[in-house]
Amino acid sequence: MSFFSNLSGLFAAQSSQDRRIKQKTHSKQMRTPRPIKQKPTPVQPKSVKKPTDQATSLAADELVREARAKAREIIVEAKSTALSIHAEAENKSHALMRNLEQQQRSLEKKLDRIDLRLEQLSLKEQNLKKIEAKLNEKKQEIESTKQAVTHKLETVSGLTKEEAKEKLLEIVKQKTAKEMAQLIKQKQEEARETAEQKAKEIIVDAMKYGATDYVSEYTISVVQLPNEETKGKIIGKSGRNINAFERYTGVDVDLDASATEVRLSSFDPVRREIARIAMERLIKDGRIQPTRIEEVVARVKKEVDKVTYEAGKKLCHDVGAYNLHPDLMKLLGRFKYRFSYGQNLIAHTLEETRIGMKIASELEIDVETVKLGCLFHDIGKVAEEPEGSHVELGVKIAKRFNLPQGVIDAIAQHHEDEPFSGPEQMVVYIADAISGARPGARYENYDEYVARLKKLEEIATNYKEVKQAYAIQAGREIRVLLRPEISKDDDVIVLSQKIRDEIKNNVTYPGTVTVTVIRETRAREIAK
Question: Which has the closest alpha carbon to 434: 166, 204, 187?
Fold first, then answer.
């Protein structure tokens, strides 16, 4: 439509142009002035049109002819284009019709197949219903026959169905009782024969699994002096240097044992290690004075804190315990400087944890509970609280860090202070015993041990009110029995406090010592 509208606009423009040319020519002719009547003059020839007007008229006619010729060409071309478009549209239409007819025929075939399939399914369904009806009839016949046979059997035997069943079971039990007893006895004997061997295999395998390459190094807190003059520097003027060192480190400094060494004594292994490193650095530096001592001790404390944290982190990662609280790992790192009967606690804990995990996996119990129980069973030995046994302190630490109840029970029961609450707690106890009791694991200075026990008993028996005194639990408790005839009930409290204070001042001991004072009166008579 736009093509034909453009064509009509072109013809309208040409016709308007022709009209304008004619009007212009006519207006020129009208504007030509008429001659004024005058006296008769000689006749002259008629006026002829100017050449310019003729040229203009010829140019306009030429334009019109060209436009008409061009219009005819455009019309012919437009008709040709329209015919080709029409033919192409008809071809596409025929192709679409053919495709639609093919699709329709395909759908009709599919519908025919579906109808056939539905008919077959309907026939099968009818056949299945007939078969089901026949089966129900057979089932009813069988049930009626079964009831008739059962009734006949009950009538013949004089027993009901339940009575016959019980009697049959009783007969079977009587026949198989002897065989069952023999089988049970045989299995028990086999279990006795193999149980001990199997237990040995499990324990040996666990110990082999728990073998570590950690070398236990017993750190003796002794610092060598380069010469005797250094001892004077350590003491300082009026003893101010040695007093400052003892105050900042919390250890006792002994300079009298040897002329070329300094002994540092403290039951806190971390304090003793800090004091040893600080003393070595001060001796090497040569500037031993209270201000310098304070600076060196403070710097060494930070370094040892970092070392203990890394040691605890490594111990946790070696046994596969991750995502633990940093303070817990820092406490475990203090095992690096703690020894129990000569056995380093990091080596003991690593070995025990691996043994416990292996035993737990063999017994198919909770390995995670056993692992954490073995890892933290001795955590109370490095606690900062002064009062309480390492079991009690370990339970407090476990509760403070919200450890699982099974782990808390393992800590509380690993010395049989409480009855075992489960197999996991028993495995922790067994692993601790294996690691501590194996040959070469621990040693003890029996002379010092016996001397400590005797010293505790002597302190108590020095009082006239005391009848007997016994040091028990490896020197962790002393039990005092009073003479009731020369003592009073108030003496129980007074004597317990006096004995406690004297032990604190005169005896060197690890952990705590509990003083138990008992006064009782007994009367005994025999009736004859």
Answer: 204
For residue 456, what are the CA distances in angstroms to 64, 305, 381?
Answer: 144, 35, 22
User: Mean pLDDT in the chain?
Assistant: 79
CA distance 114 to 109: 9
Is the CB of residue 357 less than 8 Å from the CB of residue 409? no
Alpha-carbon span 57 to 18, nearest angstrom: 9
3-class DSSP assignment, residue 468: strand
Question: Model pTM?
Answer: 0.47
Percentages of the chain per state (helix, strand, coil), in multiples of 5:
70, 5, 25
pLDDT tens digits for range 236-254: 888 888 888 888 888 888 8
Beta carbons within 8 Å of 256's beta carbon, 6+ residues apart: none
- Identity of the amino acid at 288: I
Which amino acid is it at 136? Answer: N
Query: CB neighbours (10 Å) of residue 212?
Result: 15
At residue 201, the pLDDT reads 63
Q: Which of 85-89, 203-207, 283-287 has the highest mean pLDDT?
A: 85-89
Confidence at 358, pLDDT banded by 50, 70, 90: confident
CA 191 to chain CA mean position, Å: 40
Handedness of CA 496, 502, 504, 506 (dihedral sign): negative
- pLDDT tens profile 428-448: 888 888 877 665 555 555 567
Angstrom distance (rounded) from CA 137 to CA 126: 17
- DSSP H or E segment with residue 264: strand 261-265
Q: Give backbone dihedrals phi and psi of 262, rounded to 5 degrees, phi first.
A: -120, 130
Contact yes or no for 305/288 (Cβ under 8 A): no
Backbone angles phi, psi at 344, to 5 degrees: -65, 135
Residues whose CB falls within 8 Å of the CB of residue 503, separated by 6 or more in sequence, listed in order: 456, 459, 478, 509, 513, 515
| pLDDT digit string, tens, across residues 125-147 | 999 999 999 999 999 989 888 88
Secondary structure string (H, E, C) spanning 12-34: HHHHHHHHHHHHHHHHHHHHCCC
Distance (Å, whole) CA 170 – CA 176: 10
- 48 pLDDT more than 50: no
- pLDDT for 75: 92
DSSP H helices, 158-239, are 161-209, 228-235
212: Cβ contacts below 8 Å, ≥ 6 apart: 347, 350, 351, 354
Q: What is the DSSP letter of 470?
A: E
Q: Quick one: how many helices (H) and strands (E) in the chain?
A: 15, 8
> What is the 3-class SS of 309-370, one letter each residue?
HHHHHHHHHHCCCCCCCHHHHHHHHHHHHCEECCEEHHHHHHHHHHHHHHHHHHHCCCHHHH
